[in-house]
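[Q] Does anyone have a clean structure-token version of this?
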Amino acid sequence: MDFSTTPAEDYVLTVYEARASQQPDGTFAVVLRTSRGNIAGLLHMAENQPGAVLFGSRFTSTGGGPANGLYTELAQELWRAGVTCLRVFYRTPGAEPGPFEECVLDMLGGVSFLRALGVKAMGVVGHSFSGAVAIKAATLSPHISAVVALASQLYGAKQVEQIAPRPILLAHGTDDTVLEYRSSQLIYEHAKEPKEIVLYEGAGHSLVECREPLKEKMAAWLLEHLGPQALARP
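[A] Here you go.
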């Protein structure tokens, strides 16, 4: 099992400009012009709130996330609860996601954009390949406050212990035939507290079988760390 990764000095991206156009549903279509190409995204903006969640996605057409649009529903729910949400769509997904380093840069570009909006604390969320992207991004950016990795791969997660003392939540299905749930267990073993792992019995790689309990768990966990009430505490 490979925990390989790339040195931090290889991750360099500059955001030159951000453009946003409001959609009929109140969200904003975002384009970040960067030194490595344009990054597209979809923003749910909670005005004058300090917390945000950034979701990493492969394609705009399937950017709703695993479990048949989990990210779409979760972003709307968090938005209504006062948390800004940004879904970033990787520039170079290809037939398979990657290159890994470029996707990490896309997520870090989203972090810079959210900071420019005045966000004080943010979490990152990723599934499968993107689970490791979220973990790696958190080891590189002190502005990331919490990490959720769903059915994560091992590659890119080698330095997960560097996330502490920031919290990490791992979730995996026991019937995953794409990435065995042992991968999340290994990441959990290498991570330091505070950490949590949830295994969903009978769920496959997409986690559709546990969609509702997973959504409830993620919403509660993210609000606990990034919600308005949580960030108002001393």
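[Q] Thanks! Anything notable?
[A] The chain has one domain: 8-232.
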